[in-house]
TrEMBL record:
Protein name: Cytochrome P450
Sequence similarity: Belongs to the cytochrome P450 family.
Species annotation: Amycolatopsis silviterrae
Taxonomy of the source species: Bacteria, Bacillati, Actinomycetota, Actinomycetes, Pseudonocardiales
Key words of the record: Heme, Iron, Metal-binding, Monooxygenase, Oxidoreductase
Tagged with keyword Ribonucleoprotein: no
Gene3D superfamilies tied to this protein: Cytochrome P450
Domain of life: Bacteria
Length: 366
């Protein structure tokens, strides 16, 4: 455990056992926590003291209401539902690759890993094909903002666009995820602000994570020609590679929880209102469970206990079947089109740090 006074003060849990304990106890550790962790990447509506930030359905609910939201949304996330998106994902990958395959070199982040996931998550929400590019562009612009003012302005534009889709469904429900959330009643119907926060978090959960995970994986492959050739030759090895990469460098490095009753965690007393940052990436390298945790190593298989790159407990990643499929198809298509891709000579790709982690650019040639 560590303690920081940054961001209004928080505790940091780093061991596998402490993180599992927090993630497994939604009564003591609530997911409705402001200003800390992955949920804080969505800050369009931060609320104020007398107007608290809206609580996002699913992501920020606990206990019974969380389980109810999860049941409502589950059908969109089964392995079979994920499979239903495979041909769309493959088409998007091929279109993106066609844009640079003849160039002999590319930055895989801007040309590929940032291009496919936002279009997939827009489809998942139920945005019609004609509206997906615009939503994806605005989401990308928001992520690329370089100052707080720029982020706020782009956040407002983005929220306006999402709201137009939400209002359309409020007036006329369709058979899609966004309509289900607008019209569901869990206790009471979610307010417009809540649905908006849900939609922004879903775009972030589906887009930022997969973009960063795919970039981290593309970099690992571009740096290691032997590994690249192994995973190109076998889907089993590719799937194993993806799982080990999610252990080794999980895109969601940390998320937050708020303490709801006095408790003790790893010997540290916590009080009501304290906030805890749980660092999934650190749990995944806990030497008590993962030998040579700092080493990327194929062949760990689905180790017991499981790594925590997809989270743990009630909020464990609902999108993991889709994410695994998306990453598999993205890497398959990339390695089929560019079997000999390697890092450009002299390139030193920069990592991005924070609660969501990835790589700024992956400059390759072939
Ligand atoms: C490699 C990519 C991904 C990683 C590493 C990842 C990781 C995670 C983690 C660690 C959590 C738990 C957060 C917490 O307990 O505080 C989570 C939750 C979640 N993820 Fe993912 N995720 C990925 C991709 C996706 C995708 C593609 C989607 C869907 C579009 C998705 C949807 C969700 C949802 C809905 C939750 C919240 C579940 C709940 O609150 O019950 N994720 N994810």
């Amino acid at each position: 455990m560590a303690k920081s006074s940054a961001h209004g003060g928080f505790h940091l849990a780093t061991s596998y056992d402490a993180i599992r304990a927090v993630a497994g106890d939604g009564e003591v550790y609530s997911s409705y926590v402001s200003g800390l962790g992955a949920a804080d990447v969505v800050a369009e509506d931060a609320g104020s003291d007398d107007n608290p930030p809206p609580r996002a359905p699913l992501f920020e609910f606990d206990g019974h209401s969380h389980r109810t939201w999860r049941r409502i949304l589950q059908p969109y996330f089964t392995p079979a539902a994920a499979k239903g998106h495979e041909s769309l994902i493959r088409r998007l990958c091929r279109e993106a690759i066609a844009g640079f395959v003849n160039e002999g070199r590319a930055d895989l982040v801007s040309a590929y890993t940032q291009v496919v996931p936002p279009l997939v998550v827009a489809a998942l929400l139920g945005i019609p094909e004609s509206g997906r590019e615009l939503l994806a562009d605005q989401a990308k612009r928001l992520v690329a903002a370089e100052s707080r003012e720029e982020a706020e302005e782009r956040g407002r534009e983005y929220a306006k666009l999402l709201l137009s889709h939400i209002r359309e469904r409020a007036a006329m429900p369709r058979d899609d995820m966004l309509s289900d959330v607008v019209h569901a009643e869990v206790g009471e119907a979610a307010s417009e602000r809540q649905v908006l926060r849900f939609a922004s978090l879903m775009v972030a959960a589906g887009q930022l994570t997969t973009t960063d995970a795919a970039a981290t994986m593309a970099l690992l492959l571009a740096e290691n020609p032997d590994l690249r050739d192994r995973v190109r030759a076998s889907q089993k090895e590719l799937d194993e590679f993806i799982e080990e990469a999610v252990r080794y460098e999980p895109a969601v490095a940390a998320t937050g929880r708020a303490v709801t009753q006095p408790t003790t965690l790893a010997g540290v007393l916590l009080d009501v209102g304290d906030r805890v940052l749980i660092t999934w990436g650190s749990a995944n390298r806990d030497e008590r469970y993962f030998s040579d945790g700092d080493v990327f190593r194929m062949g760990r298989g689905r180790t017991r206990p499981a790594h925590l790159g997809w989270g743990a407990g009630a909020h464990r990643c609902l999108g993991r079947h889709l994410a695994r499929l998306e990453l598999r198809v993205m890497l398959q298509e990339l390695l089929t089109a560019l079997p000999g891709m390697r890092l450009q000579a002299g390139a030193r790709p920069r990592r991005t740090y924070g609660v969501i982690r990835g790589v700024r650019e992956v400059p390759v040639e072939w």
